[in-house]
Amino acid sequence: MRSTVRPRLSVRVGAAPVPALVEGVPASLESALRDWIFETATQGRQEMRHVLIRLDLELPRPYLNQYQRELRDREAELVELTAQWDAERSMREEKAYIPSRPYVPMPPDPHVRFLAYGTELEILWDVVDDLLSVLCSEPLPPETLPFVARWNSGARRTKRITEPLNRLLIESRSVYEVASDQRGLQRRMEEGLSEALAMASDAAESSGYPAARRYLGRARDKLFAVHADASGAYVDLIRAVEAVACPMFLPRNPLPTLGKVRDHLRDADAKYEYVLTDKSGTQGTTTGVVAMLTDLWEGHGDRHAGGPREVPVSQEAAEAALSVATALVTLFSRSAVRLRPAGQRRA
User: Fold this and answer.
1) How many alpha carbons fall within 13 Å on the CB side of residue 258?
2) Which 3 state secondary structure label does DSSP give 187?
3) Which among 330, 304, 302 is positioned nearest to 318, based on CA atoms?
């Protein structure tokens, strides 16, 4: 299955701009998405009542009435077919082939039918997200033997569920994608930002700051969730930078913060150098890094409640903070800011 969609001709030849990602459920996707919900929910009928509970949905009475009518119709059809089967069996010779007893499939579960075709358009993504959570399993570890992975029932079911959904999301240019753990949806990240985040996480891990990786991951999950938590993500971004910078620059401070790191680098600028050089080729100062720390630290407008400067963190601001935080984690993890040699410290 393709992971990308071939752009339409008008886009390829430059006659039309690349279409923007779509926030909601476009008309072209709705029918196929509802069919996916129906097929997926059918695989876990026993869980669908709980999905309704979690989404605060009530099964309308007409759906239950229809199900009961279909059950009665099924029973009547089964009785008729069984009678025909018994009559045919009694007329066959003893060694003649006798077909298996008649089978009439059960009607669709009313909870499944309602989730797929009766819910409002505005909550379809919530339904999809919950179905992934309850029916899918996380990817198997990389070291899993191929034959074990092949026969793992959870992995097989997850593949059956996520592959067709991924195709629908890609082809419709949805702003959502299946999360890396396969158990929900998340907002798409720009490829460059995703690569920068991975680079920062790897740099922190390899330099002995695993907490920074965890905080970056938590920030990503909050910022790109179906219902994003921009303020919560911002908190974790600050913690990610603190997880590297505080032990590096304030190892003896009992209550280190990002603000104190910023003040320390600003006030002790003569003691530190930055790997980027100035026009003369001399190792640079920490001025630019201090500016990045200031932007990140002071940009968290709703850190303290009740004051006139309390400003809610927007999605756009939190995404900008993610870019700044990943850069800082990478720079600090790779010792791009370091103490100057003793003989080169400025007065």
Assistant:
1) 27
2) strand
3) 302
Q: Give φ, ψ of 339 to 5 degrees.
A: -65, 140
Angle in degrees, 0-180, between the axes of helices 191-206 and 230-249, rounded to the nearest 10: 30
For residue range 317-331, list pLDDT tens digits in order: 999 999 999 999 999
Give the three-state DSSP class for 115.
helix
Cα separations (Å) of 106 from 65, 95, 113, 173, 328? 15, 32, 13, 36, 58
Q: Quick one: CA dihedral 127, 131, 132, 134, positive or negative?
A: positive
Cβ neighbours of 234 (radius 10 Å) = 25
* Those residues with Cβ within 8 angstroms of residue 224's Cβ, 6 or more apart along the chain or in another chain: 186, 187, 188, 189
Dihedral sign from CA coordinates of 294, 300, 304, 310: positive
Q: Token digits for 289?
A: 């890094």
Paired strand residues for 338: 273
CA distance to 24, 121, 291, 294, 346, per residue, from 274 (Å): 45, 52, 13, 17, 13
pTM: 0.75
Average pLDDT of the chain? 89
271: its two tokens: 């003691």
- Provide the token pair at 99: 């077909």
The gap between the terminal CA atoms of the chain, to the nearest Å, is: 63
Beta bridge pairs of residue 22: 174
pLDDT per residue over 98-121, tens digit each? Answer: 778 889 999 999 999 999 999 999
HEC-encoded secondary structure of 276-298: EECCCCCEECCHHHHHHHHHHHH
Q: How far apart are CA 20 and CA 172, in angstroms?
A: 11
> How far apart (Å, rounded) are the C-alpha atoms in residues 244 and 213?
10
